[in-house]
Input
Amino acid sequence: MERDNKDYTVSFIRLLALVLLFSCHIFEVYGFTYNKGRSIGIFGNYCAVCVQLFLCISGFLYGRRKDLFKNYNRFHFVLKNFKKVLFDYYVYLLFFIYPIYYFLRQNEFNYSFIYKTLTISQTIYGIHHFWYIPYILFCYLITPYLFDLREYIRQKNLNKVLIFLLVFLGIILLDIFFKAYHVYFNSAWIACYVLAFFLNDFLNLFSKNKLKIIALFFLIVSSILNFYKYEVRYLILPNAQGDLKTFCNYYIDYSRSFFAISIFIVIWCLGKYYVKSDSSFVKLILDFSDKYSYDIYLVHMIFVKGFLTLVNKTHSLSLNIIMIVFVSIINAILLNKICNFLKWGAAKLYSKLYLRITTS
Output
């Protein structure tokens, strides 16, 4: 599914990640918080690969870029991406979260709340999905070095399959370091970005028939891992201690990341070789998803797990889901428009100041 060099297969994966985002949070709340059925909550937990898919998408798209740093120096690349992520986030805080909490949750709105949200140093329940932001910023920080590593591999003509496995091993070692020194990051999530960065080179090594086998392998293995994740998470982990508890957490995290990477590979293969769509309506939806997905991610949680939750607003779960999705989309569009207006205003102000300085 491509048009004008746009890869709509990746767009479809992004839309799927959005669907899983709502499914995960809504069904977890409905099943566990409101006691509507443990199986519903568990199903929601199985949908919790949305952020991992977002990381896969970002890594994959940058991994396909060639000679990126001929147009950008490294500092400009990092600064550009930090601005892209943080601008909408801070606008959301200033124009949405802070006023809402100030008027409706004054007992929670204090200096500690402001500090935690501004620095993203600690998540606050109801808007705790902001943990994703430090992860994607960290991934952008290491991206120039991933380009260096990829160029070194290409120049030395090293075995890319072996390198792919060695990169994965390096991520495991990084995770050991993170946990030993109580670092914020979980390398299982970083793995999604890093492995997806090298995924395009890896997949291009194989023919169409071999890719079918690889996609099937990833799908089967990830399905088996996630089948047993139920027992590990809900039967073993609650009573586990010491090394067993550590193993359970590793198993849960990496089975989730592997599941996300497997979904990405399977859908990418299907989109590249089997599923072709020229429907303008489908592409319109995918373009909309591409444009507003990040803003939808920012705004949705307060209507699901926050104090403005709509999950149990009526007796109809379907109606509640429709309301949550609708309100989230409207708020995301509004946030996007405010951000664009502020950027436009800042650009106009800058041009006027620059003109005044240069002509004075």
Notes: The chain is about 75% helix and 0% strand. The longest helix spans residues 317-359. The longest strand covers residues 2-3. The mean pLDDT is 87.
